[in-house]
Write a structure and sequence with these properties.
The protein is 41% helix and 15% strand. The protein has 261 residues and is of the alpha/beta class. It has two domains: 121 residues, Rossmann fold; 124 residues, Rossmann fold (3-Layer(aba) Sandwich).
Length: 261
């Protein structure tokens, strides 16, 4: 079986993975949100956003394979399948799933060894961080959206723990749908996080807005001014960015004394 030579990536993480595997020449189209590495913006044509795509443009690129993510792209995948195009739909929701995605993509394109080395490198660092977890784990509330307030998805919760923190809402980590991870202002007050990490997908975080919520002045994170923004491309895409720069940003936010880890 011949490995696909013309690939369209409709989410960021598969774009970055293919570049890291040295297989960027196979990419013929990308999501409009692809920003890693920076040169992708100049090198590859944009064929869609996240929940929408230019189906005729994708068809015109004659891809051997289109890579999608989650049920949110199910309609796009179905439309492409009806056109006879092969589609691989990933659905990773935790760190283990991210590592599995990297290895699976490597097998799909006959780059198994490179993909294994890439995933194993991430695993090794994660294991090192877990082995030297801090004595005091700061409690963290991760805010993925502000209205309604949505706490972090599975891989974010995993990374908080790897970075040395405790996710205040870890019991929601396996809820794949954002609507099932909605929390109330009162929930956060009761949780009393030491650190608030926010990443509002698509818009800039306003720490002063968070701090001014009624009753939040008593939350330790607000009292001590520990409200931190992490840009969404670093933490809200389930791929290499989250395991590298996203994890680094969480370590800096939660355990700044370990920032050189």
């Amino acid at each position: 079986m011949t490995a696909p030579q013309r690939i369209v990536c409709l989410t960021e993480e598969t774009v970055e993975t293919l570049y890291l595997l040295g297989q960027e020449d196979r990419i013929v189209g990308v999501t409009g949100y692809a920003v890693r590495p920076k040169r992708v913006r100049q090198e590859k044509p944009r064929v869609g956003a996240f929940t929408s795509a230019d189906i005729p443009k994708i068809i015109a690129l004659q891809p051997d394979l289109v890579l999608t993510f989650s049920d949110l792209q199910a309609d796009i995948a179905a439309a492409l399948i009806r056109e006879g195009i092969e589609v691989m739909a990933f659905n990773q929701r935790d760190v283990a799933g991210i590592l599995r995605m990297i290895r699976t993509l490597g097998r799909l394109i006959d780059c198994t060894d490179r993909a294994e080395a890439l995933a194993a490198g991430y695993e090794s660092r994660i294991a090192d961080l877990r082995a030297r977890a801090p004595d005091h784990r700061p409690r963290a509330y991760f805010e993925e959206w502000d209205d309604p307030m949505i706490t972090g998805i599975g891989w974010v919760s995993d990374l908080i723990e790897i970075a040395g923190g405790t996710d205040c809402f870890a019991h929601l980590r396996h809820e794949a749908s954002a609507k099932d991870r909605i929390v109330t202002p009162e929930d956060v007050i009761v949780a009393a996080p030491d650190v608030i990490v926010a990443s509002w997908c698509g818009k800039k975080v306003r720490p002063e807005k968070i701090a001014s919520r009624p009753g939040w002045e008593a939350i330790p994170a607000v009292t001590h001014g520990r409200i931190v923004e992490i840009k969404s491309p670093l933490i809200l895409q389930p791929g290499p960015a989250a395991l590298t720069d996203g994890l680094d940003a969480l370590i800096a936010a939660l355990c700044p004394e370990d920032v050189s880890a």
